[in-house]
Write a structure and sequence with these properties.
single chain, mainly alpha, 77% helix
Length: 71
């Protein structure tokens, strides 16, 4: 892959994945800017890490506040 194409793909990934990662984190109470920075450093991996953390947080909240069974 020529250097120009590689550069365009990486810039596109930064523009796309960094804000998405920040949004996912912010919607679950995490710092948008911290996760945005992580999205800039690890554009492809950071989104999956943010989704994993969000799911783990949601499961921990459900475990802490169990729903009552319906009568």
């Amino acid at each position: 892959m020529p250097p120009l194409e590689f550069t365009l793909v990486m810039v596109g990934a930064l523009v796309l994945f960094a804000p998405i990662t920040g949004y996912i984190a912010a919607s679950y109470g995490r710092s948008f800017w911290r996760w945005y920075g992580l999205g800039l450093l690890l554009p492809f991996l950071s989104m999956f890490v943010a989704i994993f953390v969000a799911i783990r947080t949601q499961l921990a909240e459900e475990k802490a506040n169990p729903k009552l069974p319906k009568p």
